[in-house]
Amino acid sequence: MTALDTAELRRRLPAVALIDDERLARAVLGCSAQAPEYFWNVPASAGEYHHPACREPRGLWAHTLLVATVVDELGDTYLEQGRIDADGRDEAIAAAILHDQRKYGGDDELDRSAHSNHDERMARVIRETSALPDRIADAVAAHMGPWYAGPAPETPVEDLVHTADVIASRPSITPSLPEPVPAELADLDLPSVPVDRS
């Protein structure tokens, strides 16, 4: 595994700019520096489950950014309803960025299919190797909801991440990538949206 520096991680993960708490953003980047090399190169799935663009090379990376954008958009509603606060929104965006970083195994191993416990595997990585709050690990662990053997979402942050993952995974829905779109993802022909928190 080749460690990426902070500037390169910010370029690859423009959704980090959606996190208002800079300390949390840096911790997400630190955790993402441990992502296996395959995370940046493989499709999100080989089947019909994800958006067609995410079934292409680099689709898992793109899917991650799409989930973060959906969390940001849905987060407005959760905030207005009083279900989460600004910290909860930041935590949900952090969980979205991290949620599938061990989807096909750990380190640089690449298995042929997604691990049915990849949600809990990544949550364990977060708990053991980062300074991120347990609430983020819990949201990652629950992002699959009822489809795998992991825990179902219980808190509003967990529900937000799970719902965003469901939306971003549907072939008939096309969420946007956060700008600036990494050059490697431009050929996926997905729409984009400015990351503007002002």
From TrEMBL:
Residues 171-198 are annotated as: Disordered. Transmembrane segments: none annotated. Residues 61-168 form the HD domain. Pfam families: HD. InterPro entries: HD_domain. This is HD domain-containing protein.
